[in-house]
Amino acid sequence: MSKILDAIRGKAKSMEGEMSFFDHLEVLRWHLIRAAVAVIVFGGLAFYFFDDIWQKIIMGPKTPSFATYRFMCYMGQLLHSDGMCITSIPGKLQSNEMAGQFSLQINAALILGITCGFPYLLWEIWSFVKPALLEKERKAASGFVFFASALFFLGILFGYFVVAPLSIHFLTNYQISPDIENIFTIDSYVTSVATLTLVSGVVFQLPIVIFVLATIGIITDKFMREKRRYAIIIILIVAMLVTPTPDVTTMLVISMPLFVLYEISIIVAKRVVNKKKQTELEFFGKA
């Protein structure tokens, strides 16, 4: 994986004798076209089965019988904490535009298409970079698509089953005055669910981002350990904002995966730094 950045920077130079700049653009164009086709195919399937997707997936966090809320009630019974049990999600949803619901279905299907097609998009990027790598480099970087995709979908699951439902419960119950009735547009609801879910998927790419930054020497495991206290504070603030109650247990449920993710990133940075030191020692040893 550590060779991916060098391959991207040196793509044009390494194949300059064989392909022109415009040839590279043509190859890249076809990779992007195939990725776009995959997104359209997944989006078309989502559009076709939208009724089930709408009721069971998109509207899930708005339903008190959602798996997350039932699990929280179960945990509340075990811990004798009534505040953890969520039995209602107030607020009405409405569409204010004539083509609002049709546009909503298209946009939601497109978002689902991008989400489902993410691994194939990564594969097309890898296929574009792969010819510039040596056989040894290809083997070293072969896990990029798998790990990035796995982290992305883990983040999606965390965002959908943890961040999104708790945030929706907090926002729909928040009132500055009982005289104000909460009526939300359907676009606002879908955008909130999609944003919270996709952002979580992106956040779970932190180990990949740290790997890249450590590879080019911008960040080290030592720096991350020194700034751990600040990271903990930020994570706790985020967990506090999306937690529906001031219950410490619920806040820890939100923050624990983020703590683990940060520690994994430290391990990744340490391995990269150690590998770079070993390579330097071998180079000077031969010299």
TrEMBL record:
GO terms for molecular function: proton motive force dependent protein transmembrane transporter activity. It is a multi-pass membrane protein. Keywords: Cell membrane, Membrane, Protein transport, Translocation, Transmembrane, Transmembrane helix, Transport. It is found in: Cell membrane; Membrane. It comes from the Bacteria. Its main location: membrane. The chain crosses the membrane at residues 31-50, 102-123, 144-168, 188-218, 230-246. InterPro entries: TatC (IPR002033). One of its GO terms (cellular component) is TAT protein transport complex. GO terms for biological process: intracellular protein transmembrane transport; protein transport by the Tat complex. The keyword Ribonucleoprotein does not apply. Belongs to the TatC family. Part of the twin-arginine translocation (Tat) system that transports large folded proteins containing a characteristic twin-arginine motif in their signal peptide across membranes. Forms a complex with TatA. HAMAP family: TatC. This is Sec-independent protein translocase protein TatC. It comes from Mucilaginibacter gracilis. The lineage of its organism: Bacteria, Pseudomonadati, Bacteroidota, Sphingobacteriia, Sphingobacteriales.
